[in-house]
Write a structure and sequence with these properties.
Blueprint lengths: L3 H11 L3 H12 L7 H11 L8 E9 L7 H10 L2 E7 L5 H6 L4 H5 L3 E5 L2 H4 L1 H6 L14 H21 L3 E5 L20 H18 L3 E4 L1 H8 L1 H4 L2 H7 L8 H15 L6 E4 L10 H8 L8 H16 L3 E7 L2 H10 L10 E7 L3 H12 L6 E5 L2 H10 L4 E4 L8 H6 L11 H4 L1 H17 L3 H8 L1 E7 L5 H10 L3 E2 L7 H8 L4 E10 L2 E13 L5 E9 L8 H15 L4 E6 L11 H4 L3 E3 L4 H4 L3 E6 H4 L8 E4 L18
Helix pairs in contact: 1-2, 2-4, 3-4, 4-14, 9-10, 15-17, 22-23, 24-25
Length: about 650
């Protein structure tokens, strides 16, 4: 018998409704009693045409010291539920060294976007896991962990180095699960470094190496196993029979960890959390229980709601925008924030508050419009199933997390578990995002007060710095390609490694844009990447993007003016630009028209998709002029050294 959850998934799939299908897939995959659900969803993914359901394709190579092929269904199904079309490649059993070290291997022919290197501790440090720290001599090998770390990194380092020579893909490396039964038992670590201490030291070395290498991340495999329990995670019988040590029913959890990275890579990280108040931010209903009657404080269940508030504070500190959508009386809510002694969150933690009696979906629309972000970048948390259902039906692109009202202590896990807010980089702009939006609000207030658009632009007192991307701005530049959707000509996503390679290539122009106005420093908000073509006379724009916070200030004109100057310095006389339409980048569509570029004919698949091609002839038309209300600093009229830091001046 087909369940209701499966029926809803298959109905949404049949109608090719992207957001509804993803939501239905998540609900269906959460039905633990249906063992075959991963296979059902994976089969649907395999049947999809290229570009089906608007899924973002990610080519993933899995290299493991064990049989990891069994994860395929879970990986495809989880990917669909999170907006990603996973295209997998599996190497042969324990063939990771051969694949990574051989530049002619099938791995590199596959051209992955992400490579996962999963080596179990027993294969990386076999002597430690099989014999323990105490060898047959009965004496400890060393008073330090250094020999063990050297042994482990002696395997890992050459693999990373070889990989980086041949690929710009994201590299994910598993950390190690400590031995479940240390050879010395309760004396592990008593007489010298024990097995657990050795593994922690190896973890530290892996983390350091990841910090030193662009585009390398350490997957918290040990933490995942600890959350679920090692005794449940490992299937010792299958480990011996098929070299498949992970229990099949737990593979979806590992797939979920991987998909967090894929989602961040293709720009699907959520930017804003919208929370309800009653029975969510605190226990009880303020209109019925009063300020002193709500449950919030040191004792359960009030302590559980405090834990949820702490989780929101953590998100706020990571740069996630917080907002409120509550059916309530504003005056009573303000009283709680002002008078309740246990409140951790304050009104200034929230960039928008929609407190009234209208449907929550209207509140979410208003918040998205006020922040100028897409609804697909929002997460909504509410304890009321009816409110969750209303939002999911009206706004299927919004991610809905039901607050676990019966067990509020599980709220933080519900919030953090899926990794909706996880990104590959935490930049200065991320940490300051709430303040940056407040700066934008002040700028919008100035716009409303100004008598004309020109007066508003002059009143902003903008200083725009456009300089080469360097070490200090590399991570932010890559992040902008992964997260910017509205003013983005091509929406092509790039890793740090790829941006770095282009920055070092004399045929590439890679420059980032910082904007300072009278209200403060907006940070790095724009990026241009352009390539000198083989004819030597053409500079083609591959990426031109601008953060939504500064759209409408003519900064794009200053970017084009700088591009013209750099093109002349590179001895090119022609600039080509391309616009590739998506569901979200309409604000960038008129860029070339408004600046007088000449349209060129487009044919084939590009024409049918609405793609357009544009030309600017520098030899006959000269350069584009920076608007008079913008002061450009950091201008370098010669060819800049692309390998240096941007050298942004302080405001």
């Amino acid at each position: 018998m087909i369940s209701d959850a499966r029926s809803r998934f298959e109905a949404a799939l049949a109608q090719q409704l992207p957001h509804e299908t993803r939501n239905a897939a998540r609900h269906y995959l959460a039905q633990e009693e249906e063992a075959g659900r991963w296979r059902v969803v994976a089969r649907s993914v395999r049947a999809l045409p290229e570009g089906g359901l608007g899924l973002k394709p990610v080519r993933v190579a899995l290299l493991a010291s064990f049989s990891i092929d069994f994860i395929a269904d879970a990986l495809l199904a989880t990917g669909l539920a999170h907006g990603v079309r996973v295209i997998p490649y599996f190497s042969g059993f324990a063939q990771y060294s051969q694949e990574l070290l051989n530049p002619e291997s099938a791995l590199y022919a596959f051209k992955p976007d992400v490579v996962i290197l999963a080596i179990e501790g027993e294969q990386l440090l076999p002597r430690l896991y099989r014999e323990g720290v105490l060898p047959p001599s009965g004496k400890l090998d060393s008073a330090t962990t250094e020999p063990w770390v050297a042994e482990a990194m002696g395997v890992i380092d050459p693999l990373i180095a070889a990989f980086r020579r041949h690929s710009e893909a994201l590299l994910l490396i598993h950390d190690l699960v400590p031995p479940c039964w240390p050879g010395l038992g309760i004396l592990d670590g008593r007489q010298g470094p024990g097995e657990v201490e050795v593994i922690h030291a190896v973890h530290g070395a892996l983390k350091r190496r990841a910090r030193e290498q662009r585009g390398v991340h350490v997957v918290g495999y040990a933490a995942l196993v600890a959350r679920l329990g090692a005794s449940q995670w490992y299937d010792q019988r299958m480990a011996h029979l098929a070299k498949a040590p992970i229990a099949a029913r737990l593979l979806p959890h590992l797939a979920g960890e991987y998909v967090k990275y894929f989602r961040a890579l293709v720009g699907l990280t959520r930017k804003c959390l919208v929370t309800d108040l009653d029975n969510t931010l605190w226990g009880g209903i303020i209109g019925e229980d009063g300020v002193q009657g709500i449950r919030l404080g040191a004792d359960y269940p009030g302590s559980a709601y405090l834990a949820y508030q702490r989780a929101l504070l953590q998100l706020h500190d990571r740069g996630i925008l917080l907002a409120i959508a509550s059916k309530n009386n504003l005056a009573e809510v303000e009283t709680v924030f002002r008078e309740h002694p246990a409140m951790l969150l304050r009104p200034d933690h929230f960039v928008r508050q929609e407190i009234h009696w209208q449907p929550k979906s209207l509140s979410l629309r208003a918040i998205a419009q006020g922040l100028d972000i897409g609804l697909e970048h929002m997460v909504f948390v509410d304890d009321n199933p009816a409110e969750c259902a209303e939002v999911e039906a009206a706004l299927p692109m919004v991610t809905v997390i039901p607050f676990p009202a019966a067990r509020p202590e599980e709220a933080a896990a519900a919030l953090f578990g899926p990794g909706w807010f996880d990104g590959l980089v935490l930049s200065v702009e991320d940490r300051d995002r709430a303040d940056l939006y407040r700066q934008r609000d002040r700028a919008e207030a100035l716009k409303a007060e100004s008598g004309s658009l020109e007066g508003y632009l002059y009143g902003l007192e903008m200083r725009v710095e456009i300089v080469p991307v360097g070490a200090a701005t590399l991570a932010r530049a890559a992040q902008l390609t992964q997260k910017t959707n509205q003013f983005n000509l091509t929406t092509r996503r790039h890793s740090e490694e790829e941006v770095a390679r282009r920055s070092a290539d004399p045929d590439w122009l890679v420059r980032c844009v910082r904007v300072v106005d009278r209200f403060g420093d907006n940070g790095v908000v724009g990026l241009v990447m352009a390539q000198r073509l083989a004819d030597g006379n053409t500079l083609e724009i591959e990426t031109l993007l601008l953060s939504c916070r500064v759209i409408g200030r003519t900064i794009e004109t200053a970017m084009l003016a700088d591009l013209c100057q750099q093109a002349v310095a590179m001895k090119t006389g022609r600039i080509l630009g391309r616009f590739i339409p998506t569901a979200r980048n309409a604000p960038a569509q008129a860029l070339f028209v408004e600046h007088g570029f000449t349209p060129l004919p487009v044919s084939g698949p590009e024409a049918s998709s609405g793609e357009s091609l544009w030309e600017w002839d520098l030899t006959t038309r000269g350069g584009i002029v920076t608007p008079p209300w913008i002061t450009r600093s950091g201008v370098d009229h010669g060819r800049a050294d692309q390998t240096t830091d941007g050298g942004f001046s302080q405001p």
